[in-house]
Amino acid sequence: MEINKQLQNEIIKKIKEVFDPEIPVDVYELGLIYDVIIHENNSVHVSMTLTSPSCPVAETLPQLVKRKIEELKLINKVEVELTWQPNWNRSMISEEAKLTLGIL
Predict the structure, then answer these.
(1) Given this model, what pLDDT does residue 40 score?
(2) Which of 2, 16, 56, 99 would give a disulfide with 26, using CB separation of 3.0 to 4.6 Å?
(3) What is the 3-state secondary structure (H, E, C) of the chain?
(4) For the chain, what are the domain ranges?
(5) CATH placement of domain 2-89
């Protein structure tokens, strides 16, 4: 279980390298990542959303997240699921990101 927690932290670090192009905050701190599940065979399932369905990077942002996670040597397979439930809203933004955006 400790290895899983360490791997999850590494995955989150990689996800934090992906920024929304319109907002100077990474997708994790924006609250766009709903879930990161690591299976026994080190395959990873990420559930994420976007700030809106009409987001101009709807096609590319999930792929960027996937590619960043795939950079980790221990990962066998990555699946990124785009979901709209629950709808994203500003309350999902981390306190750190709210400070960066000046909305706290």
Answers:
(1) 86
(2) 16
(3) CHHHHHHHHHHHHHHCCCECCCCCCECCCCCCEEEEEECCCCEEEEEECCCCCCCCCCCCHHHHHHHHHHCCCCCCEEEEEECCCCCCCHHHCCHHHHHHHCCC
(4) 2-89
(5) 3.30.300.130
Angle at which helix 61-70 crosses helix 2-15, to 10 degrees, equals 130
Alpha-carbon distance of 38 to 98, in angstroms, equals: 28
User: What confidence tens digit (pLDDT) does each residue in 61-84 have?
Assistant: 999 999 999 999 999 999 999 999
User: Is pTM, for the whole model, over 0.85?
Assistant: yes
